[in-house]
Specification:
It is a single chain. This protein is an alpha/beta fold and about 270 residues long. Helix 3 links the parallel strand 3 and strand 4.
Length: about 270
């Protein structure tokens, strides 16, 4: 029996509450973690979220996407709402050109110790607050063999819609969690057998190829915020500070670009 879709014409319908004001960053940053939800946008990301074991709360489609998503519609028990493109835009605050949104249940975050136990290369993000950069970092982490991502308490939400979209769903695949005390948790990394490497410019920083040559069995790469980089206290607490050699008078890279370089250099091929 074919599952019945629920047509909604009123953008104020309370059944669409999960999707209201998606462009209001401050509102969504408060609402989504508190209510235990996140938004998956686009066919590929929705399928990856389901494949990663996230349960669906509901799905919102424009009519032309109903056939494309038919197998998902039949698979999930969640309600599926169809709306016109105009209603979708009024509800969400933007033109939903991908035509498919899903509200998903978040999972409980694992304990940092559980992620560290079996990993060899981990990423630590300190106060990285641009959602585009967070998504790009996760995509590089997935592509270049990082085992897990740990976030400082003041880091942006990887499950915010923009992060999920930019990562192409990698935030749903790479294991991650939040640290409770930072930079105090550097001690926990060290106790778990990790050499902590802070990516920072400084007189005592070693070049990235030198770090790679040391072939540390377990390595935690620590990256800082987009503007000021890592806090001095974090750099001081790390085992080593590392810089990426540059040319043409350039002194630094965007944090997502720097991360990709470091992930490639220290990833599986270097072990």
């Amino acid at each position: 029996m074919t599952k019945e879709l629920i047509a909604v014409e009123d953008p104020g319908d309370p059944r669409l509450a999960d999707y209201t004001g998606l462009t209001d960053v401050q509102l969504r940053r408060r609402r989504e973690p508190a209510e235990g939800l996140f938004i998956a946008e686009g066919e590929k990301v929705i399928r990856r979220a389901l494949g990663a074991g996230y349960a669906m709360r509901s799905m919102l489609l424009t009519p032309k996407w109903a056939e494309t998503m038919r197998d998902v519609i039949e698979e999930v028990p969640a309600p599926v709402y169809t709306v016109s493109p105009e209603v979708a835009e009024e509800v969400t605050g933007y033109h939903v050109h991908r035509g498919a949104l899903a509200s998903m249940h978040r999972k409980p975050l694992p304990a940092p110790a559980d992620l560290l136990a079996d990993a060899r290369r981990v990423v630590v993000l300190e106060a990285v607050n641009d959602h585009t950069n967070v998504g790009a970092l996760f995509r590089s982490a997935a592509a270049l063999g990082m085992d897990a991502v740990l976030l400082s308490p003041d880091c942006a939400d990887p499950l915010y819609r923009r992060s999920v979209k930019v990562s192409m769903g990698a935030v749903l695949q790479v294991p991650w969690t939040r640290l409770e005390s930072w930079p105090g948790d550097i001690a926990a990394l060290r106790e778990a057998g990790y050499v902590t490497a802070a990516l920072a410019l400084g007189e005592e920083s070693v070049d990235l190829p030198e770090l790679v040559a040391r072939r540390h069995p377990r390595l935690a790469l620590i990256l800082g915020s987009e503007g000021s980089g890592l806090r001095p206290s974090t750099v001081a607490a790390a085992d080593v500070s590392v810089r990426i050699p540059m040319s043409a008078g350039v002194d630094s890279l965007n944090v997502a670009a720097a991360a990709a370089v470091a992930f490639y250099a220290t990833g599986p091929a270097s072990r």
